């Protein structure tokens, strides 16, 4: 599986029924737990003081990530995504040492 950093900005359209927003947010929380259980959602952060998120996601490729993973999020139609494929850096302090 490949890893991706995904920046997500959610913009709720003006005039949207607050009950619809609440329903979708509740469904989003459920779906995030499901995607974490399958290993697709690894970590999720919110920059301090901002209403966007940055997540570490896994999928076979970017097409699968966009279509079969992120495309299943209940808030997806209100989201703007920036997807960046990432790979391990040789100097990553969190990378297991192959020589030990």
Structure overview:
- The structure is a single chain.
- This protein has 100 residues and is an alpha+beta fold.
- It has a single domain, classed as 2-Layer Sandwich (Alpha-Beta Plaits).
- Helices cover 28% and strands 30% of the residues.
- It has 2 helices and 4 strands.
- The chain has a 4-stranded antiparallel beta sheet with strand order 2-3-1-4.
- A hairpin with a 6-residue loop joins strand 2 and strand 3 (52-59).
- The model has no long low-confidence stretch (mean pLDDT 94).
Topology at a glance:
Elements: E1 2-10, H1 18-37, E2 41-45, E3 52-59, H2 62-69, E4 79-86
Antiparallel strand pairs: 1-3, 1-4, 2-3
Helical content (DSSP H or I, runs of 4+) = 25-40%
How many strand units?
4
> How many angstroms separate the termini?
25 Å
Strand line-up across the major sheet: 2-3-1-4
Domain tally: 1
Q: Write the CATH fold name.
A: Alpha-Beta Plaits
With helices defined by DSSP (H or I, 4 residues minimum), what is the helix count?
2
Mean pLDDT score:
94
Q: Would you state the CATH class? A: Alpha Beta
Round the Cα radius of gyration to an integer and report it. Answer: 16 Å
Q: What ranges have pLDDT less than 50 throughout 5 or more consecutive residues?
A: none
CATH superfamily: Dimeric alpha+beta barrel
Quick summary:
The protein is α+β, with helices and mostly antiparallel strands and 100 residues long.
Offer a few descriptive terms.
100 residues, alpha+beta, Alpha-Beta Plaits, four-stranded antiparallel beta sheet, 2 helices, 4 strands, 30% strand, elongated
């Amino acid at each position: 599986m490949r890893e991706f950093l995904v920046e997500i900005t959610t913009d709720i359209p003006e005039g949207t029924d607050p009950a619809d927003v609440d329903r979708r947010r509740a469904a989003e929380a459920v779906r995030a737990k499901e995607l974490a259980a399958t290993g697709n959602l690894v970590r999720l952060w919110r920059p301090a003081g901002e209403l966007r998120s940055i997540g570490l996601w896994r999928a076979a490729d970017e097409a699968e990530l966009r279509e079969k993973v992120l495309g299943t999020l209940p808030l997806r139609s209100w989201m703007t995504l920036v997807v960046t494929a990432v790979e391990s850096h040789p100097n990553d302090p969190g990378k297991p040492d192959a020589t030990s």
